[in-house]
Amino acid sequence: MTSSESLAHPRFAEALRELGLIDLHTRIRRFPDATRTAAEAAAALGCELSEICKSLVFAADGEPVLVLMDGASRVDVELVRKELGAEKVTRAKADVVRETTGYAIGGVPPFGHRTRTRVLADRSLLAHDVVWAAAGDPHTVFPMSPEDLVAHAGATVVDVREQPQTS
């Protein structure tokens, strides 16, 4: 294992090997302070909040679903519910996130999870040339084109971003 490989969470490092993305190891960035939130990651990287890709786990009728969303936006659970044809969609609890993905909240990458999960990616991510996502723990992130990220995550591109309220 190279020193750059050790920057990634072991499960994520294995996923990168399986996907043929070994070169991505050299682009993983580790920060001494946590980059658990999109705002913390954007501040550490010096990029726009919308250039951060959040990996959020929801429960749709009790089944986990991963939603990839730009860091400046919020997920509209009603739009997710409609997209999935579900009765009820809620934010997954921390234990469900860890059990489903193998990672703790704040470090969930967009792919390389313990279990195969349905993945939705909000179209807003495609507005950027590069987005940054968690690399398996709250201190590491990696860059990738949103199109490649969506492809590797096996995501369906949808519109599930909460729209600003008009008065």
Keywords:
167 residues; 23% strand; disordered N terminus; eight-stranded mixed β-sheet; alpha/beta; single chain
Quick structural overview:
InterPro entries: YbaK/aa-tRNA-synt-asso_dom_sf, YbaK/aa-tRNA-synth-assoc-dom. This protein is of the alpha/beta class and 167 residues long. It is 25% helix and 23% strand.
Structure notes:
The chain contains five helices and eight strands. It has 167 residues and is α/β, with parallel strands linked by helices.
Total helices: the number is 5
Structural classification = alpha/beta
Q: Termini distance?
A: 55 Å
Instruction: Characterize the biggest β-sheet.
Output: 8 strands, mixed
Give the CA-based shape: globular
Strand content: 15-25%
Global Rg: 15 Å
Order of helices and strands: HEHEEHEHEEEHE
Percentage of helical residues?
Answer: 10-25%
Give the overall pLDDT as a whole number: 92
Uncertain residue ranges: 1-5
Topology, number of strands: 8
Pfam families: tRNA_edit
Protein name: Prolyl-tRNA editing enzyme YbaK/EbsC (Cys-tRNA(Pro) deacylase)
InterPro entries: YbaK/aa-tRNA-synt-asso_dom_sf (IPR036754), YbaK/aa-tRNA-synth-assoc-dom (IPR007214)
GO molecular function: aminoacyl-tRNA deacylase activity
